[in-house]
Design a protein that fits this description.
Elements: E1 7-9, H1 14-35, H2 43-65, E2 67-69, H3 76-84, H4 90-100, H5 103-108, H6 115-135
Antiparallel strand pairs: 1-2
Helix pairs in contact: 1-2, 1-6, 2-3, 2-6, 4-6
Length: 136
């Protein structure tokens, strides 16, 4: 049988683990950025930002509907919209989509992501993460 959905069913407590992971990824992204010297490759910081955003979204989808996105991160914003409905404002949807759009370049790319771009992504993560926290 071929799996066609990117949704995976999870147990009712799954969200707690993802929430803890989201907070940790966010902390490591913030700390990594603060500790980086001028000229350092910040792709690992962006990778942590992406992982934090994914874990934050999983927190909500797992808590509300006991599902998480699996494998296809481009489908993740749609699942979040499906679960959250109108509670997911366009601003959060755009922040999440923007963060996810940097996954491949941060994790597999050879070019360094500009410091200014990292600052923007950290701001998006802070805002998105704070919104998720307000929905718990």
């Amino acid at each position: 049988m071929v799996r066609t959905s990117t949704k995976k069913k999870v147990n009712t407590d799954f969200w707690r683990g993802r929430h803890s992971a989201a907070q940790s990824y966010r902390k490591f992204a913030e700390d990594g950025f603060q500790l980086a010297d001028k000229g350092d490759n910040l792709n690992p910081v962006v990778s942590q930002i992406v992982l934090a955003a994914i874990a934050y979204a999983d927190t909500l989808t797992a808590k509300r509907h006991q599902v998480v996105n699996q494998q296809d991160h481009q489908a993740a914003p749609s699942l979040l919209r499906e679960v959250m409905g109108n509670a997911l404002l366009d601003v959060q949807h755009k922040q999440y989509t923007r963060i996810l759009g940097n996954k491949d370049s941060a994790q597999y790319g050879a070019r360094q992501i500009r410091r200014e771009k990292v600052i923007e992504l950290l701001d998006d993560l802070r805002s998105f993460g704070n919104w998720v926290e307000s929905q718990l």
